[in-house]
């Protein structure tokens, strides 16, 4: 079987790229020949490079799509799985969710007039209605249900395959390995509750909501550690100062290895406005951290409030503060560690790769 996986640009900290990396290892181990089609990829590992000259992101995305469509038309691959919205791909992995839903939740009407957003909406609709589309891989039930609602004609093509999590790297034992050393290094003390956030793109991921929630919390000793990268980080530092919580917030930047911080924290918070299924939340659960997130996050399907975390609507810092306070009570978060890890115990990479292989074989047999 010859498979091509399409992703425009590799970012070492991106969830989609980590999915691809894990899938590549698993699929190649099963004898599947896999190439990457990309503009840029780590160590120039792409099988096919499609890199149109840059005249703005709308032109870039259109040019990349045309290049990929030429590769598809060549017939050199049995299946082409795209992580981008490209009409004519055989499989679409909806790792970024539904663009129309994101725009609706963002609540910015003028954004719809942007040429790039208009192009992306049109490409998304054209791809999901294209006759060559054989399957859509949804990484959460939230995404599957959303696509089925908007495009009922392809409901039978929607398959939920959750992200695989490396359970050997992310496990509750990280607490014993890292807690004391990291907390001492960062001056957190042994008992103050530490709330960890991991993610880039602070606006969509809800960092402002998290800072506002911290200001509303009754647990005045709680601290927030923010791991990630955002070009507007200074804005969020200023917001923390404005809210009077700057001494309780640490901006730690992007980290190649988040495990020491997962081991040192008490709970994980991702107050995202919209997130199909963030790896960071799954890795936190696997590491024994209860998770507080929103009802518009795909990870919500793994959260049982009061057992391994808490849920609240997006953009509601008071409700989020209440959830965080409940988990910051002495001993509560640690008591949820086993339930947190158990909730994602069925997501090793081998399960994901087996589901992918099963889908690919099903599609190949149907095409014969």
Walk me through the structure.
There is one protein chain. The chain has 368 residues and is α/β, with parallel strands linked by helices. It folds into 2 domains: 2-164 and 348-367, Rossmann fold (3-Layer(aba) Sandwich), CATH 3.40.50.2000; 174-343, Rossmann fold (3-Layer(aba) Sandwich). The protein has helices spanning 15-29, 57-74, 99-106, 115-129, 141-150, 174-186, 202-205, 207-216, 233-243, 259-264, 279-286, 317-328, 332-335, 337-343, 349-367, and strands spanning 2-6, 33-38, 48-49, 79-82, 91-93, 135-138, 158-160, 194-198, 223-227, 249-253, 267-270, 291-294, 309-312. The chain has a 7-stranded parallel β-sheet, sandwiched between helices. A 6-stranded parallel β-sheet has the order 10-9-8-11-12-13, with helices on both faces. α8 runs parallel beside α9 (233-243) and α8 (207-216) packs across α12. The longest helix is centred in the C-terminal third of the chain and has 19 residues, at 349-367. The mean pLDDT is 92.
Short description:
The protein has helices at residues 15-29, 57-74, 99-106, 115-129, 141-150, 174-186, 202-205, 207-216, 233-243, 259-264, 279-286, 317-328, 332-335, 337-343, 349-367, and strands at residues 2-6, 33-38, 48-49, 79-82, 91-93, 135-138, 158-160, 194-198, 223-227, 249-253, 267-270, 291-294, 309-312. With 368 residues, it is α/β, with parallel strands linked by helices.
What is the fold's blueprint, element by element?
Blueprint: E1 2-6, H1 15-29, E2 33-38, E3 48-49, H2 57-74, E4 79-82, E5 91-93, H3 99-106, H4 115-129, E6 135-138, H5 141-150, E7 158-160, H6 174-186, E8 194-198, H7 202-205, H8 207-216, E9 223-227, H9 233-243, E10 249-253, H10 259-264, E11 267-270, H11 279-286, E12 291-294, E13 309-312, H12 317-328, H13 332-335, H14 337-343, H15 349-367
Helix pairs in contact: 1-15, 8-9, 8-12
């Amino acid at each position: 079987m010859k498979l091509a996986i399409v992703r425009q640009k590799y970012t070492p900290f991106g969830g989609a790229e980590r999915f691809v990396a894990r899938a590549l290892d698993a699929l190649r181990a099963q004898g599947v020949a896999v190439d990457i089609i990309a503009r840029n990829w780590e160590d120039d590992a792409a099988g096919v490079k499609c890199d149109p000259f840059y005249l703005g992101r709308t032109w870039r995305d259109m040019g990349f799509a045309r290049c990929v469509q030429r590769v598809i038309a060549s017939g050199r691959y049995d299946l082409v799985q795209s992580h981008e919205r490209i009409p004519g791909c055989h499989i679409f992995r909806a790792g970024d969710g539904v663009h129309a839903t994101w725009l609706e939740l963002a609540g910015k009407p003028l954004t719809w007039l942007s040429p790039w957003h208009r192009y992306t909406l049109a490409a998304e609709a054209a791809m999901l209605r294209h006759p060559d589309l054989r399957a859509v891989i949804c990484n959460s039930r939230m995404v599957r249900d959303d696509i089925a609602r908007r495009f009922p004609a392809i409901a039978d093509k929607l398959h939920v395959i959750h992200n695989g999590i490396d359970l050997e790297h992310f496990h509750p034992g990280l607490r014993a390995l890292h807690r004391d050393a990291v907390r001492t290094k960062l001056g957190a003390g042994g008992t103050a509750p530490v709330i960890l956030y991991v993610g880039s793109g602070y606006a969509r991921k809800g960092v402002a909501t998290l800072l506002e929630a911290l200001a509303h919390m009754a647990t005045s000793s709680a601290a927030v550690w923010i791991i990630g990268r955002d070009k507007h980080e200074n804005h969020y530092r200023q917001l923390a100062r404005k809210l009077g919580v700057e001494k309780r917030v640490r901006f730690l930047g992007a980290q190649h290895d988040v495990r020491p911080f997962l081991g040192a924290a008490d709970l994980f918070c991702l107050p995202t406005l919209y997130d199909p299924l963030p790896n960071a939340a799954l890795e936190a659960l696997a590491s024994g951290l209860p998770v507080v997130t929103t009802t518009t996050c795909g990870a919500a399907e793994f959260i049982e409030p009061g057992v391994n975390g808490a849920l609240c609507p997006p953009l509601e810092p008071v409700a989020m503060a209440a959830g965080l306070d409940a988990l910051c009570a002495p001993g509560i978060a640690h008591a949820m560690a086993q339930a947190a890890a158990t909730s994602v115990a069925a997501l090793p990479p081998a399960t994901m790769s087996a589901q992918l292989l099963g889908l690919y074989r099903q599609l190949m047999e149907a095409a014969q």
